[in-house]
Amino acid sequence: MPDVVTDLPLLVYGPRSTAYDFGPAHPLTPRRFGTGVSLLEALGAVPNLAPEPATDDELEWIHEARYVEVVKAFSRQPFADHRAGIGPGDTPPFAGMHEASAAVAGGSLRAMEAILRGEVLHAFHPGGGLHHAMPARASGFCIYDDPALAIARARRDGLRVMYVDLDVHHGDGVQAIHWADPGVLTFSIHESGRTLFPGTGFADEVGGAAALGTKVNLPLDAGTGERGWLATLELVLPELADQFRPEVIVSQHGADAHAFDPLAHLRITTTAMGAAARLIDRLAHRHAGGRWLSTGGGGYDVYRVVPRTWSLVWLAAAHREVPASIPEAWRDRWAAGAEHYGQAPIPTTFEDEPNAGVPRSVLDDRLDDRAIASAVAVLEQALGLLPKQ
Ligand SMILES: [Zn+2]
319 an active-site residue? Predict the structure, then answer.
């Protein structure tokens, strides 16, 4: 833990990060840390907060005690009968899963505490962002909800928190856990639940009775591209922040909205993802005294997309220019793996060419226009419901 104020963001990564591992056939592979962290290090980033497990008491701020006991039981005996969302499919049991999952939660929690103590303005936890975990069940590769826990920690200090979820999947767990709290504004932009897991995140999900307008959802049609996605964020986020006046920002930078991602159907670029990260940085400085915790999230192209996305988030948090090209030594190191997993060639630049080189038609352009039109409607609805701070 650093004891001096530093210009560089805290980078949360350590030996326990790769223990969050559902096995070799699972898409959320720890291989992403090999490619991702080595590219961060090539930029000059130094991991300086190694995640350790959050305590049971801390986990129980947002999870039911009986659920934590279920996870611990699987952790000791992974071949037990399936329950609480842990079983065959997306979120299988594995030995040591409690400790590994509690460490992801602990990483985001300690990073938030460092921010709250004023030791750093920004922290980035690439292994975090497990936004589907619910109070009493696992879901969508997520056991414990680290962004929701970091938010809960800031709420214990009475701070108003804005959560921005850029993952291609709806941030349903974070929304559910803070549903009734008017001091937590959650914003999620994602592929529509009509075509993608978890099937929620529609514009009419606006928060509990005492918190109307503090839960904001922007579902996008499959095929929406970088123009619609980024224009929407630039339209909505500054206005929401102006009205809500967050005192800390937590963001989730799942890389799975990218055009190359194998599990979803948006067509976003790393260029747009980097611009979104810089927008969030600006909002953190404008409203929240700079307090900003960013996390990773989904992202299943671990050679071409995840490392560049993480790098662009870190560069935004480090207030550094995007380098002209990706170090050749790094590309050489990972070229064979990229080939082996069908994720080659590795691009030569951090930012993609327009539309990541995927041609777009007039029909595709209409999807971008639709995204912007629905953003206008969602923003109007939220501003009508949100109390002015
Ligand atoms: Zn900043």
Answer: no
